[in-house]
Amino acid sequence: MPKVTVRYWAAAKAAAGIAEEPFDAATLAEALAEVRERHPGELARVLLRCSFLVDGDPVGTRGHETVRLAEGGTVEVLPPFAGG
């Protein structure tokens, strides 16, 4: 199972109470399920509005279960930003 880092930004960071944390997950869907398990409540609600980058590449509309994670990879959790 790959070890990855999940980084939270803006409202996701506030809801998680931390900037980043490690997870063991083979797909983005597995990583997000673990995030929801560790942080039920507000972060789970924020995730519904987020977009994601995996190793710098936008996930877009791909199914999260199809997005494979690599050992040492990074998942960026990006809530909608004001301004832009």
Automatic annotation (TrEMBL):
It holds the Pfam family ThiS. SUPFAM superfamilies: MoaD/ThiS (SSF54285). It comes from the Bacteria. This is MoaD/ThiS family protein. It comes from Streptomyces hokutonensis.
